[in-house]
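retry 2 of 3: previous attempt timed out while embedding magnesium ion. Reduced batch size to 1 and resubmitted. Inputs unchanged:
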Amino acid sequence: MSDIIQLLPEAIANQIAAGEVVQRPASVVKELLENAVDAGADDIQLIVKEAGRSLIQVIDNGCGMSETDARLSFERHATSKIRKSEDLFAIRTKGFRGEALASIAAVAQVEMKTRQHHQELGTRILISGSKVEKQENCSCPAGTGIAVKNLFFNVPARRNFLKSNPVEMRHIIEEFQRIVLAHPDISFSLVHNGQYIHQLPAGNLRKRIVNLFGPQTNKKLIPLQDLNTDVIQIKGFIGKPEMARKTRGEQFFFVNKRFIKSGYLHHAVMSAYENMLSPNTHPLYILFLEIDPARIDVNIHPTKQEIKFEDERLIYKYLSVAVRHALGSIAQTIDFDQEMGLLRATQMTHTPGKAKPITPSASSNPTGPSPSSPLSPRPAQQDEWRKLYEGMQTPAENMPPPQQEEGEDDGLIMLESKLSGSTENEHEGKVASTAGKQPCQIHDRYILSSIKSGFMLIDQQAAHQRILYENYLEKLDTAKQSTQKELFPRTLECHAADAELITEIMPQLNKLGFEIEVFGKNTFIIHGIPAEMAANNQDPVAILESLLENYKHQAGLKLPLKENLARSLAQSAAIKPGQTLNPTEMQLLIDRLFACRDPYNSPSGGRCFITFSMEELARLFK
Ligand code: ADP
Ligand code: MG
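retry 2 succeeded.
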């Protein structure tokens, strides 16, 4: 048989490699900004058009490149940052794989102008789909300017895969934030479609954070007392617990000035905040870890966002101690120096060769879900639920009708307002006489309700989410809903990325009953919120923030916009564990749940209720 294996042509190999490095416009932004930082620039401009689809341009005043280097920089595995294999263990630069420019040039039309400071003339190169179309001398400012046009022009599948402009822009802004926070000594600007989104002068870290996230951030910053050990240095800022937001957008780890994601380190920080945060709020943290590059491996991920630490347990402890100390809570528990001493002792006895094997952050996250009990009965079958109560005097019949408030003929609205806990239960005495039939609440979390064959346990949060979710989906398909005007309109100041998102979903928010007005850069005025939420005294800003957070969280699921929105809002607005319900409210919740199209599952797939039969119970007692 004749030989069939061939080496891939360079252009195809580059395109394949590009698949790893360049997933979307934001990946290009990240690589180009990193190169500019590596080039020693102290002023970097980012210009994008159409969320990077038509143009991503980065202009820096860094070292620039010689004519030969300019041409070589687009070759795969061409880098000035690594010469010998030992260099791999001492990486201080952002790049080192020499893949970015080659990958970008494989899937876009690129124009580069670059000049070294001591040269009079610079070089201009045009490359399209890996093909060099022109290289010539040119006059240009010292430094490098790269314009990436028509990304994925030759890979239609990739281009079609891109999300809407606001979504892609959000990713770009996120990458921008990660770089500018790591380099407050460099001035940056970001222009989108001819408008400035950020202009950040060089300064210290606090100034950078405040410039980036808005003036209101200043008062929530708590500086970390710099921690210096042989293994690690930690510095940065954390946020005051009482000023934690419903959105998670202000949490950053940098290791050697490289932004990283780590569920494990996140847990270390959150453990320090234990019991200090209101439910579902996320504190700010912008933390910088400096670790000897030999003790970490940044080369496990093509975009280098995940890294391996030689001893992550020790880092976990240092981090949690440093944060607790900053929060002041340490004073009551254990003396900081004493604790540091303890940690140092641990470190001494720790032999590098026997380090705990490094595990990916997800699997080492100590908060992983515990397996569900094998005793858990399965949810009732689809056609069976109606029969559950058959032949039973329903609790509702035993109870006085729920109080009807004027103008609120919609049972759901009433449920919402009653669920706010604001209405006293005046029926308690009468209801108590029907004990055994009326639902009862367990640990303010589950509702126990007798059914013909036994009993059922309803998860109050999941059930309420299901009810709201179906309701919101319906609303999104119909005309605009009733809005409750706020007496004092509230202002929501958010990050550029969240502002893009609000703008994107504004029409749908209006349909749901929000009334939001754009008010200058990254600021919105909330004039009204859905009537039932107003009746429930819910805080408009908190609702919107948590809505955004849920929405972003679910972005990975690629749900249709409406569905994501309905889900997100249901999650934000639903009652939570810990909310006490009176029997009337519980019964309403049950009735509403079983009026749903799918009462079995919460919108995110969890069970709303489980049933136990008398036989099962009897068996358990044997
Ligand atoms: P890496 O950053 O991994 O080395 P890249 O493909 O991103 O790989 O860049 C290749 C080389 O091109 C770099 O090592 C650097 O020498 C040079 N280079 C890229 N961008 C710039 C820039 N903005 N200024 C100066 N040199 C640059
Ligand atoms: Mg690079």
